[in-house]
Amino acid sequence: MLDSRTIEIIKSTVPVLEVHGETITRTFYQTMFKNHPELLNIFNHANQRQGKQPTALANAVYAAAANIDALERILPVVRGIAHKHRALGILPEHYPIVGENLLGAIKTVLGEAATDEIIEAWSKAYGIIADVFISVESDMYEHSEQLPGGWRGFRRFIVDRKVQETAEATSFYLVPQDGNPIATYEPGQYITVKVKPEGQEFTHLRHYSLSTAPGAAYYRITVKREDGDANRPAGIVSTYLHQRVQEGDILELSAPAGDFTLNQNLQSPVTLISGGVGLTPMISMLETLLQHSEREIVYIHAARSREHHIMKEHVEALAADFPRLKCYTVYETSTADDLCDKSGYIDATWLSTIVPLQSDFYFCGPVPFMQAIYHALHEMNVPEENIHYEFFGPAGSLDSSASNPN
Hints:
Largest sheet: 6 strands, antiparallel
Strand content: 15-25%
CATH class of the largest domain: Mainly Alpha
Domain Globin: 1-138
CATH superfamily of the largest domain: Globins
Order of helices and strands: HHHHHHHEEEEEHEEHEHEEHEHE
Site (Influences the redox potential of the prosthetic heme and FAD groups): 84, 390
Distance between the termini: 47 Å
Number of strands: 12
Helix content: 40-55%
Oligomer: single chain
Structural class: alpha/beta
Shape: globular
EC number: 1.14.12.17
GO molecular function, one term: oxygen binding
Site (Involved in heme-bound ligand stabilization and O-O bond activation): 29
CATH architecture of the largest domain: Orthogonal Bundle
Number of domains: 3
């Protein structure tokens, strides 16, 4: 437990973190990777370049500081991060490295304002916070290993099938090389793929949502190829999976993880909303609901156009077989032959005419898309406890002015 003086000092730094948090975390990552380049085998390089990871860490540090006297308030955030840490293979021995470099970054950025008393207080606080993460992650490692078909670390899987869904999206059906059973999972969870493409100095790890209901003898992921443009480079892992990995090849996977999961204990209607490749966890949830419940379901998918609509025929077939499933399609651009339900974007006015307001809402997609959905649901007065969403990559915030969901 922290003494009252340490808590007082930590809380006094909260305004400073609001101003300098991202500068501190950027400095932290730069210094840590310089001192420990081997950690580049774990962290997502693209998130570092785009600034997502420093922002996410700054938010987490801010939340921890603001709640240092009652860390149980941020346990949901801790569990979400811990799921990703477990899936990446973060271990207790990594935490002293993080602590040393984080404290060094605080001193570097704040200079003389980071007194010895402040650094000592943060050292104590970090020790408490690290212990919470280590404890939660230890339980997760043990749980994933003890599940029937579960394992710790990474396990080799064969690409049994590779199915092109659209010009830029491909599904990979993965079966264990050892022939043993695989762990079940909660609809909405993800696995982590570890690869080392030719010419790359470090291994690369990426989380991919499982895109089918649990219970099969395989895992399926559906990956959109990130080609890049003038503002961002092509995705190293997605390009490698699309262009290099073939049926019969081996991929290393961590056991399923993630806290964005379907609540299967309710009987209320469910509305699933996806944008682009954000449909992957939605398909897992949809198939599970159809197999194991009698709940009314509305599924809305938004895509740039008909050509970019992933698994269109699959969802249409499900809707034909299950009258309690109502499906709607929104295309950003459409032609008279596309037969979509709406052109343009999803908005509150249209959404309120097709969904039961007492629904549980789940959605996933690009961040601007999710911001638009989040604000539409609030405009419709949907209770916060009925709103569930998943970020691809480091967690961010949707609680800002909705931007154009382009």
